[in-house]
Design goal:
By secondary structure, the protein is mainly alpha-helical. The chain is elongated. The two termini are about 65 Å apart.
């Protein structure tokens, strides 16, 4: 490949001479640091060099710092050294500014055979391509860093083939443009787009290790830093170079907060104290991209990114969070935005590499979420945008079709939103100057997310969230406010699920007593608190007290709501549990059978309440010695719980635990031990080794002569 260089004076620009060089900047390529993760793109480009490009304009596009320039330099170097048949004359133009672009194109025309500057007039684009069209030797023209396609229109139009660039007019040449802007339709149908994406974690980690070797930490630590840097080659190079420099620095010059390992660099990023070079490397990219969006007519792009940056580093479900009306109401700069405009804005941002459009694995053409590049997220995040993000999330959770966080049929939506809700809650809590209104809205959102965590069986996580919300409610609304009481009730339910019965009882007791005073004895929430108090008393073995509370709730709910109301049936169900533990098996069985029939009719066979009644009916049958019927009931309940709740949900494990006992009583010792061992192993993972349910499973295995240690992990 022949590389030509010419420095010309171009007097057209306000009397100034613009100096240009057409030589590719091969000195920027450092052989010490191989180009990682780009083999597929390099093979593609080698093929295009060999074939001549087929009259296509090759557009390498990606986020600033993704390594587009490095990729072209590597392709030139490899082709020059390894593929004589692909060798071409190379012209390289720095196309970031119009002056340099036009001066460079004029220089190309001179090198292609233009004899006189006087021929470079109003028809200069035609003259340029007339010269290139008569060349018999292959050539490569690189326009590096061109983000504004309008610069290529010249006297005509890039898309129509009448602008400065007309690759279809000359089959012997290859034209490559590197740009942040891959989504502009003005590229036209003659463009071949090659996206230059961020590197996957393993390849990105190799970039860091190329700089530091193993002195800065393990490959796993390098992968974590690479992930946090979003796999962006520029950021990886900055971080790797920084760490290499720090490791070679005398200790006397290191400060106590100087990151000197992959893990320390991650911690510094999370604390917002990463070396300034990494942030500065992206700041200009962010600014130029926003300016480019503004020139295309998209206003409010920076505000949209700021709102999105407030969310978690997880896919953001755009169908829930980015509906035009709620978005416009939450982010004032986007007021009145239409759906088509918003969708075009998202696609433009994706083309610029600032975010990714995440597709469904089942239907790749269906975009289900957006995801900000991690460093763009860091750069765009501001405390001032938090209230807007909280309002946006509140609007999403207010949608009727979102449903209850406890409803398994709506878990997909809740699982997508929960990490973002919790991230917002953490940021609001950390912002001392946040207004009370935003704090209360965020607390309400966090409560919904905690309810979802609890429904999934993640009781400890739910407990922590309830405690944080309760602190906010008490500080801003007082102990007797309905929202405070509701949160305290939910915290008590999480404690109950965790097996901390004394604390759960104390919480329920307090909520019931306060609610009686401020709401009345027969208010729905008062009855609910009394019902839960009866449940925890039952679990503590205080059957008489439990019966008193549950009987009152059953009678009051039946009178107020009717005998088939869910509240009435729930109280009746808990009263049947008391009958069961009192040894009144026939009465308890009759109650369970009646409740099960109603719940199947009202709620369906797959509802969690139906499956609970079925589980408890099987327990009575077991105690009556009806082992085959009990096993059949447990298996049916277990299949339903596995299908609805999952294999590792605590309620699923509870049914497995009971089914193992029936197998043992039927004489299937091996089957019972196997099922109990599986149950114990899952219980350790989900609930922890000290949870009562885990302890019971381990104790039973010992009684049965089996060693629980492998399942417990000791």
């Amino acid at each position: 490949m022949e590389i030509r260089q010419l420095v010309l004076g171009a007097p057209e620009f306000a009397g100034r001479r613009v100096l240009v060089t057409l030589a590719p900047p091969l000195g920027e390529r450092d052989p010490r640091y191989p180009l990682r993760g780009r083999e597929g793109l390099l093979e593609c480009m080698a093929g295009l060099f060999h074939s001549g490009g087929g009259g296509k304009l090759i557009v390498l596009h990606g986020l600033g710092g993704s390594g587009k320039t490095a990729l072209v330099l590597e392709a030139i170097t490899r082709t020059q050294g390894c593929c004589p048949a692909c060798r071409r004359t190379v012209w390289w133009i720095d196309a970031r500014q119009e002056e340099g672009l036009l001066a460079g194109l004029r220089a190309v025309a001179r090198q292609a055979g233009l004899q006189s500057d006087r021929a470079w007039g109003g028809d200069a684009a035609d003259v340029l391509w007339s010269q290139l069209n008569v060349l018999t030797q292959g050539w490569l023209l690189v326009l590096d860093g061109l983000d504004d396609t309008a610069l290529l229109d010249g006297p005509g139009s890039l898309a129509s083939g009448t602008g400065w660039i007309r690759p279809q007019a000359c089959p012997t040449g290859v034209v490559i443009v590197t740009t942040r802007n891959g989504g502009d339709p003005s590229w036209g149908s003659g463009a071949l787009f090659l996206p230059v994406r961020s590197l996957h974690a393993d390849r990105a980690a190799e970039v860091l290790l190329d700089h530091t070797g193993d002195a800065a930490g393990s490959p796993a630590d390098a992968r974590e830093l690479a992930r946090r840097l979003g796999g962006l080659p520029l950021a990886l190079h900055v971080a790797g170079s920084y760490l290499a420099e720090v490791m070679g620095m005398p200790d006397a010059f290191k400060g106590p907060q100087t990151p000197d390992s992959f893990a320390a660099y991650v911690r510094a990023m999370e604390a917002g104290s990463a070396p300034a070079d990494a942030r500065q490397a992206l700041a200009e990219t962010w600014r130029l991209s926003i300016e480019l969006m503004r020139r295309r007519g998209f206003t409010g792009t920076d505000r949209l990114l700021e709102a999105l940056a407030a969310f978690s580093d997880a896919p953001i479900p755009h169908t829930l969070l980015l509906r035009p009306a709620p978005l416009g109401a939450a982010v004032h700069a986007l007021a009145g935005i239409s759906g088509p405009v918003l969708w075009r804005m998202l696609k433009e941002l994706a083309a610029l590499g600032l975010l990714d459009l995440v597709s469904s694995s089942e239907a790749p053409e269906n975009v289900v979420a957006v995801r900000l590049h991690p460093l763009i997220r860091d750069l765009s995040r501001t405390a001032a945008a938090l209230p807007a993000a909280v309002r946006l999330m509140s609007a999403a959770l207010a949608l009727e079709e979102l449903g209850s966080p406890e409803d398994p049929e709506r878990w997909v939506a809740w699982q997508a939103l929960t990490p973002h809700v919790l991230e917002l809650a953490d940021q609001v809590a950390a912002c001392a100057e946040m207004d009370a209104s935003t704090k209360l809205v965020s607390a309400g959102l966090a409560t919904m997310a905690a309810r979802h965590l609890q429904a999934l069986g993640l009781f400890e996580q739910a407990r922590g969230r309830y405690e944080a919300v309760l602190a906010v409610r008490r500080a801003l609304q007082g102990d007797e406010h309905p929202a405070t009481l509701d949160c305290r009730h939910l915290l008590s339910s999480a404690l109950h699920d965790l097996g901390d019965l004394p604390l759960a009882r104390a919480g329920y007791q307090a909520v019931w007593e306060i609610s009686c005073r401020v709401r009345g004895e027969e208010h729905t929430d008062t009855l609910t608190a009394r019902h839960e108090l009866g449940r925890v008393l039952h679990d503590q073995g205080r059957l008489e007290e439990a019966h008193e509370h549950l009987a009152y709730v059953r009678e009051a709910s039946g009178r107020l709501n009717g005998p088939r109301h869910p509240y009435t049936l729930t109280a009746r169900h808990e009263a049947a549990r008391v009958l069961h533990d009192r040894g009144c098996l026939a009465e308890a069985r009759a109650e369970y059978e009646a409740i099960l029939a109603i719940r199947r009719e009202e709620l369906g066979a797959a509802h969690a309440g139906t499956l609970t009644a079925q589980h408890n009916l099987a327990a009575v049958l077991h105690d009556q010695g009806r082992l085959e019927q009990a096993l059949e009931g447990y298996r049916e309940a277990l299949a339903g719980r596995r299908r609805v709740l999952g294999d590792r949900h605590p309620r699923t494990l509870q049914t497995q635990y009971k089914a193992a006992h029936v197998l043992r009583d039927l004489g299937d010792h091996a089957g019972a031990v196997e099922l109990m061992t599986v149950t114990l192993r899952a219980s350790v993972m989900v609930l922890g080794v000290s949870h009562p349910q885990t302890v019971r499973a381990a104790d039973i295995l010992r009684v049965w002569g089996a060693d629980p240690a492998p399942a417990v992990g000791t």
